[in-house]
């Protein structure tokens, strides 16, 4: 039922003609009049947002200058940054698209093009596309990481976002950080969500099935043991579209299992194949798509392993990819997209589906420039109202940013350094550790850092800090473990986060090495060698195993910022890299 | 075959140098079975353990065995493992984790006509392969799958 080779070549021809293939992006970025005029194509429009991390208002977000690909991923999307990225996708340098997709010339370009994202601006675009495609001819998919990432999402336990998504008209979603609330809150939020929540890879554990506390929940299937509905069928402009959900496979490993003790995840590609086969034979779909929170590298491998999927709409790794990657497998080809993060983009895929199959498509990852899209009044009113009770708290000025403060990248961003320095200073530690999340908004030079910025970088449901002694061997073990989650050449062993951020610690990293051999030459800031048997005082936050005893991280960082008044990074604790020279996932890196 | 054998021997050598006391598995029916093969399950060397239990450690890699296991374990203390063997005449299915201090974890003897299927949970102290050894028609067949045991989170 999937595309044969010849059919796909035909499809690619169509796509080229329709202005999709990478080279043609040049033309699209030069369109002077209306960036948001996206010509109709085909008969089905699938809009895709992902990883907005609860950013209701427009933000700044700097794309990475370090996104290394190793093994088979070397030099391929998504492991491209800066000029290599622009060249690969044919994006015109110094254009608005170049600013949206790369870190290049970030400070100046951010001032020129302004803030990105925002639900009110996104709502305007979604409404416009819905109207242009015609009533009932489109779907809006949300890949998850929607209920977490802002102060208001944290304080309302994700509910501000559930309602915002209802207003936006999200049809179908899956999840990851959604599962970092208590399980009963997850179930409650899904109940309030007007769309459908789907995930084929979340089961109720065998023990919990004996007396399952959510046995009344709509999506629960006792026979299959699935906690949520695995897929849904929608008719779009007369076309039968199957959407299969894939939640983040490593949620109970990367995030606390204690909040969701009854659910077990995993990639489950065998089950995915079974679901695709079952959908293909029982539901007679014209199109089969997966709404995935695997992360792009895992999606690319899954597209090789599992047959019968037309498109995987991906997220998690926050890769803003202007064009899909076409993956060949034993029975056809699958398109794999990734739609960036923080509300910065809307993926728009127009598909021509006829005679029971995909004949052609046109894809654009559309940047949401808040200066170019009007705010939808109803959504803006909602946002203002939901923020009102927290406004004073959010707007508290803490310090002045003298340089761009960002997180995204394989190693310490400047905002991470602020967090690590704060942990060391406030908690009187030698070394600090901070998680390599990929969310967290950017502050540009001259901007006042507010409590909201700090919340955007830190607010999780397990924010407690710790201060404890660790041996040099323990610290190395942590670095090696996280390094393997990032650089294991097999994507199925990657968790999709970046390297743990460090303060007060320098090291050498050789990503091409095997587990346990990537990290060497660990020293304190003053050059003193770290010894395996010696103890060091370490501060950190976001412990997954059990709750830490200290204050929430945002209070620690706020204390530090109030004290600093002006923020300029003296030293960025990024590792010296080995074997990465010429890697197109690395630009402007001082210690390659 | 020789390659695999070498690999298995190499793997068990590595395991035998471990000094950590981690119990081999959940199923240790010492009190249930009179003839508990203590020598096999107590062996620190997998090849030795297998030879002791199955009478030989000569085995062939087989595509007829599939191991279902998580790529990354959600909890190293209870890693769900399912082994399915589709060849004819399966007599037993043995599961081993060469990186465990005592690599042999479980062995299921199947009566004639039973499906070649065994499902259990095993404890894994660290990342490594899970190895299935299937005895069928008097011969030994094997397959393996890597399972990663991580400290979790983002290390912070």
From TrEMBL, chain A:
Pfam families: 5_nucleotid_C. Transmembrane segments: none annotated. Residues 413-543 form the 5'-Nucleotidase C-terminal domain. It comes from the Bacteria. Keywords: Hydrolase, Nucleotide-binding. One of its GO terms (molecular function) is hydrolase activity. GO terms for cellular component: outer membrane-bounded periplasmic space. InterPro entries: 5'-Nucleotdase_C, 5'-Nucleotdase_C_sf, 5_nucleotidase/apyrase, Metallo-depent_PP-like, SoxB_N, TAT_signal, Thiosulf_SoxB. GO terms for biological process: nucleotide catabolic process. PROSITE patterns: TAT. Belongs to the 5'-nucleotidase family. PANTHER family: 5'-NUCLEOTIDASE-RELATED, SULFUR OXIDATION PROTEIN SOXB. This is Thiosulfohydrolase SoxB. The gene is soxB.
UniProtKB/TrEMBL annotation, chain B:
Residues 51-154 form the Ig-like SoxY domain. It holds the Pfam family SoxY. InterPro entries: SoxY, SoxY_sf, Sulphur_oxidation_SoxY. This is Thiosulfate oxidation carrier protein SoxY. The lineage of its organism: Bacteria, Pseudomonadati, Pseudomonadota, Gammaproteobacteria, Chromatiales. The gene is soxY.
